Amino acid sequence: MPNIADYISEDRLIQLTRTLVEIPSVTGKEHALADWVFDYMNSLGMDAVKRLPVEDAGDTIVSWFDGSGESPGMLLLFHLDTFDVCDGWDSDPFKTVRNGNRLYGLGIHDMKAGAACILGVLEAIVESGAELGGRLYIVATTDEENWSRGAHEVIKSGLLRDCSCGLNPEPTARREVRIGQRGRHLFHLTLKGKTIQASYDHDEGVNAVVDAARLVTALDQVPPQALGVNEAYNITSNLAVTSIQGGSTMILIPERAHVYLERHTIPGQTAESEAQLLRQVIAQSQIKSTVQIQWDDRPTPAPTAYLVAEDAAIVRQIDRQIQVEFNRPPNFVIGRSVNDASHFTVYGGIPILLYGPQGGNTCKANEYLEVDSLVPTTRIYLNTVLSMLGASSRGTGVGAFEPGELE
């Protein structure tokens, strides 16, 4: 009796990866790749393939296979966009180049190789004739590297209403599964001082730019432990000042200055709780300017931190499949950054785990994939899908599986 995973081919996964890399899809210019994915999904005979327009980006694509049973649906999620080309490439970023176990190309690690793994799962299901017990959703988003507007178009559409969990092939280390992510909040501090003519005694004015510098110094000196620690997963939250603005060449003491900072939070922290920390730092810095605190001025909601419980069904299943693949258990971690999985989990109510093929130089020059991670990643995804949804044959000799049976 053939195993569905036998339909996975490294050569085919490399071919899919090359195709995806060689269709440029820098954020805001994802149109051509969105068109390709739309046509590809239709060619597989998906039960539905839908386009969701995203302003200033290519369409986000939502598709699915209907299941024969009543198992809750499952999502395989990938994004189409990449960062732009940076300096330092040794080859054409839009042409894949292989050197031993490494395959180079723009966005190949984040996340076109991961997308190829998902497409490999679909092809294995189609070629084997397997029929799933529940609906399998495939979502290819645009604008992920910017504001995740594609993800929110999907959430607003209601198309994933029966979806209970998902997987997302963001770059990870081998056997490293992100079962949670830190949140991200952008804070804007507006300092208001008092202007006077610059040649006069400064005691009569309040220099907002100088106060901004003092405040930034105070923020930089906050101990990491004071920012928040999750001891169970050995991760802290962080704070990074990204911009100081204010003043001019006018002969005036500047009365306004602006400080922008990033806060990556751990589960349990909120923007409101972190604003209170900023108020404490401001009070202790003894600056004379008044400070207004605003945060998350953006076109989509800011992703807060999340953590999927280790006893959740999807966590137990990927745990089993990684142990089968590598004969060692996974390493569960909380991811340091944010991505579309954060939005689907927090605002869509769909717990998403992250596991992807291995590589390096992610979002840098000479980004590469470790080719030998393609098949194991695809097999883990396929067997997790079969285990979560169940599968039966359609006259091809493929065995029947109930949800949770594949171990």
Q: Any descriptors?
A:
elongated; 6-stranded mixed beta sheet; Aminopeptidase; Alpha-Beta Plaits; 2 domains; 4-stranded antiparallel beta sheet; alpha+beta; 407 residues; 27% strand
> Globular, elongated, flat, extended or rod-shaped: what is the shape?
elongated
Largest sheet descriptor: 6 strands, mixed
How many helices in DSSP terms?
Answer: 10
> How much is the radius of gyration in Å?
24 Å
Summed over residues and divided by their number, the pLDDT gives a mean of: 94
Please provide the count of β strands: 21
Report strand order across the widest sheet.
1-2-7-3-8-18
Number of structurally distinct domains: 2
Fourth CATH level, the homologous superfamily of the largest domain: Zn peptidases
| Helix amount | 25-40%
Portion in beta strands: 25-35%
CATH architecture of the largest domain: 3-Layer(aba) Sandwich
Structure report:
- The chain has 407 residues and is an alpha+beta fold.
- The chain contains 10 helices and 21 strands.
- The protein has 2 domains: 4-181 and 305-392, Aminopeptidase (3-Layer(aba) Sandwich); 183-295, Alpha-Beta Plaits (2-Layer Sandwich).
- Helix content is 30%, strand content 27%.
- It is elongated, with a radius of gyration of 24 Å.
